Each structure stands twice: as C-alpha cells, then as structure tokens.
C-alpha cells in the first residue's frame, strides 16, 4: 500500500515580510521613473534662438586673361598609336636602301625602300626583244599573205615549198658590228639595212643557264674554316637561308659532302637500333635467357652519355665520325656486362650461390679483366683525340667519343650493373612463379 499524501503547514517568519516589502518598493520607483521619462519625451520643444545675419559679399571687376596651364599626369597605363600600318612587299628583290627607321612617321606616296632594278631591267629588255621578234614574224606573215593572195585569186597555187637557210659570208661574222652591214629586201624590192628594222644593244647575260630537275639552279660552293666541322657549317647555312625570307617558289638543297652528312644523320638511328637488336639476338642464343640480356645492354646508356658529354665539353660537333665512335662503344662497353653476368649465372647454377653473393663475387673477381680491357681501348683512342696535323679534325671526334664513353662506362658499370642484375633476377622469379601458378589449375583439370 502506498502512503497517502500529507500537507505540512509552516508559520511565516518576519524575514519573509521584509523581503516582500523591499520588492514592492523597487517596483514602485521603477514605474515612477518610467513615467517621468515619457513625460519629458512628449513635452513640446522650445523655440530656437534667432540666427545672426549673413555678412555682405564684396563684388570686384577684373579683365579676363587667357594662357596655358601646365598639367602633369602621373600614373601607369598603355600608350597606343592612333594609326598603325603593316608594310607588305608586293615586289621581291634585293634591297639597296631603306628610307625610314623604326618609329618614323611616313606619308602616302613616300618611297620606303629602293630595290635593285637590274633584274627587272633585264626581264624588260628580254620582253622587248621578244616583242620585236614577234612583230618581225607578223610582218613576214603579212608579206607572204600579200604575195599569195593575188596568186590565189588568179588560180595559181604552189605545188612544192622548200625552206632555204641563208648564211652570212664568214668575213662578215667577225663581231657584232657585222650585223649592221646586213641588208634585207623591203616590200618595194629595195635593200635596206637590218638596223632599220631591228635594234642592237649590249647587255650582261649568263653564258649558260644550269638546270637541276628541270628547274634553273645556281650552285654556291663553300669551304670549311680551320677547326669547323661540316655539321656546324650546315647549321650556319640553314640559318642564313632562313634569314633571307625567300619566296616559296625558290627551294634550297645541299649537294656533295653536306648532302652526304644529312643522309647519314637521317639513317643513323635505324642503324643503331638494328645493331642493338642484333646484339640482343646473339646474346639471347648464347645465354638462353631474355631477362639478363637487358642487364648487359644496360651498360650502353652510360657509354653514350659519356661520349656526348665529352664532345660537348670540348666543343666538338656530333658528326659522322662521332656517331661511328658511339657505334664502336656498343661493342666495346657491353663486354663489361657480359663478364659480370656470365660469372654470376655460372656461380648460381654450379655452386648454388644466392643472387646477391654471385653478383658481388663477380664484381670482385672480374674487376681486373674489365679494367685491363677498358684501359687498352681507352689508351688506343688517346692518340686519335690528341693528334694534330692534316686530317686531325676528322679523327679527333672519334677519339673524344671513345675516351669519354669508356671513362664514364668504367666508373658506372661496376655500380649500375649489379643493381640491374638484382632487379632483373627478381623479375625473372616473379614471372616464373606466375607461370607455375597458372599451370597448376590447368594440370588439375
């Protein structure tokens, strides 16, 4: 059973009466203060005080003066010309003089430049000579027409026609002045000098016009300065040709040694790739592996880098001889990788060494033969590099490429080849493990 609620009565104390009285007194004071504030807000405002009178303004008469005022504007901005003009050449030729400078103001009708008129004068004279020949042929045709029309009207016609070739007496062929003593018959039958119907003028003209591929051509020959290779000369000629801004109807082409140099450069990358592919096939048949062959070929980039760096440091161009040196390095440098990889594979298969121990022992035991063979080839290239005399500019790039490539490859091969060998061995194990994993389900089925 739950107990019933009980009501408890407590007597009031004097402290409670005092608190109620204080609260009531505070509320009464707040109401009185609020009423006083409202009464002051709505009370009528008092009249403002009168403003003092404005002072009198004096009026002064003075004459008007006009003058310029200097104004200086400072700031950042863009200055743009009012009018811009683009000059485009309508006639191509060799400039003789330029009558303006950059930034100069020009006007309509001003001669901006002067072009060499001699080529156009020669063409004009040729055209005038052709016109004279055409007019002479036209006059000859008119003479024949006037002679044959009466015959045709009377019923006469020529049965046979023969062409007669006339030749001047050899005594009148001594020089150009002999042409003035030649006389021809006119329509009236009188003989007149040929100077009456033709004009003669001495001008400059080529003795022969060379053609190449059915186009007129001009051959410009050049020799190499001492210490300059053919590659540098070809580059400078190409720059000079590009600066001429020749029209599209003109084409340039190298001949002789320069053409052979360009042909060799274009065929060199395929030859290098073919050499690498041949080396890969031969090594693959010898080692019966496709993974560690990449370890042997990894020695070649260091040799190529050393050859190019040496040629660049000594200011030698990469010409045909330098490329031959790089191709020689392919056969010389790869023997370092062959010595290391062959010894390491033999140690793994016959003595059961681990990959790390086998390649470490290969580096220790094969260091002497690698160093001996490299020094023999390097010292053989020193005379080519330091030799002077006739033809030294051809032999020196070969020596620089061989010496630089062998030095860099000798330093880097003993460090890079073991690293590549370890990674290639891991890749070989990974590929073999994956093949075995794929072969197990196939055998179970």
Question: Average pLDDT, to the nearest integer?
Answer: 75
List SSEs in N-to-C order.
HEEHEEHHHHHHHH
What global shape is seen?
flat
Q: Report the radius of gyration as a whole number of Å.
A: 54 Å
Q: How many helical stretches? A: 10
> What are the low-pLDDT stretches, counting only 5+ consecutive residues below 50?
1-16, 44-50
In the CATH scheme, the class of the domain at 263-444 would be Mainly Alpha
Strand content: under 5%
Sheet with the most strands: spatial strand order: 1-2
Indicate the percent of residues in helices.
55-70%
Assigned CATH architecture of the domain at 263-444: Up-down Bundle
- Total beta strands: 4
Q: Explain this structure to me?
A:
This protein has 445 residues and is mainly α. Among the domains are: 130-154 and 165-204, no CATH class; 263-444, Multidrug efflux transporter AcrB transmembrane domain (Multidrug efflux transporter AcrB transmembrane fold, Up-down Bundle), CATH 1.20.1640. It contains ten helices and four strands. It has helices at 14-41, 118-153, 230-243, 257-287, 292-297, 300-313, 320-351, 355-365, 367-386, 392-444; strands at 95-98, 113-115, 183-185, 191-193. The strands form two sheets. The protein has a two-stranded antiparallel ribbon with strand order 1-2. A two-stranded antiparallel sheet has the order 3-4. Strand 3 and strand 4 form a beta hairpin. The chain starts with 13 loop residues before the first helix and ends with a helix.
